[in-house]
Amino acid sequence: MSLRLQRFILILLTLLILGTASLLILSNTKKNIVFFYTPTELLQNNIALDKKLRIGGYVKKSSFIEKSLNDYEFKITDNTNELLIFYRGILPDLFREGQGTVIEGFLDKDNNIIASKVFAKHDENYMPESIKKELEKNNQWKKEYK
After folding, report:
1. Is 59:87 a contact under the CB 8 Å cutoff?
2. What confidence tens digit (pLDDT) does each residue in 71-87 have?
3. What is the rounded CA–CA span in Å between residue 80 and residue 108?
4. How far apart are CA 44 and CA 48, in angstroms?
5. pLDDT tens profile 6-58
6. Is 13 exposed, middle or buried (0-12, 13-18, 19+ CB in 10 A)?
7. Residue 111, Cβ density class (10 Å: 0-12 exposed, 13-18 middle, ≥19 buried)
């Protein structure tokens, strides 16, 4: 084999390997994408029941029910529509009624969400208690912080 043919085969094999790797990465990424919806967007779109999704909104006032230990039911809303959420697990410390939240889970046939994860959102003034104590200890805590 000539040197020119060997280079051509090497370049061809390299391109083939890179193309295969790119296709594998892209197909895996497509399978793992989780789309974010508001309750209104979710109800307006036809979403498959077995598709993992994220719903964002506010926990509706007076909707939170603790059915049993680590078994919860509540509604999230975007002030237009609301969805009933069922969750079994430990809720985040910042989770409460009226607070923003993001729910990851699956849609059931009754347009309820079976949550696998619950994330609590906080505002720009939130400061973790450990940092607050450290600032107070160093005399750098300012009273205008919330």
Report:
1. no
2. 999 999 988 888 999 99
3. 20
4. 13
5. 999 999 999 999 999 999 988 887 777 777 888 888 888 877 777 888 898 88
6. exposed
7. middle
132, amino acid identity: K
Say which residue the tokens 């994220």 belong to.
54
- Bridge partners of 52, per DSSP, are 106
Output the furthest CA–CA distance in the chain (Å, rounded).
80
Strand partners, 58: 77, 100
Give the pLDDT band (50/70/90) at residue 108.
confident
Backbone angles phi, psi at 62, to 5 degrees: 60, 25
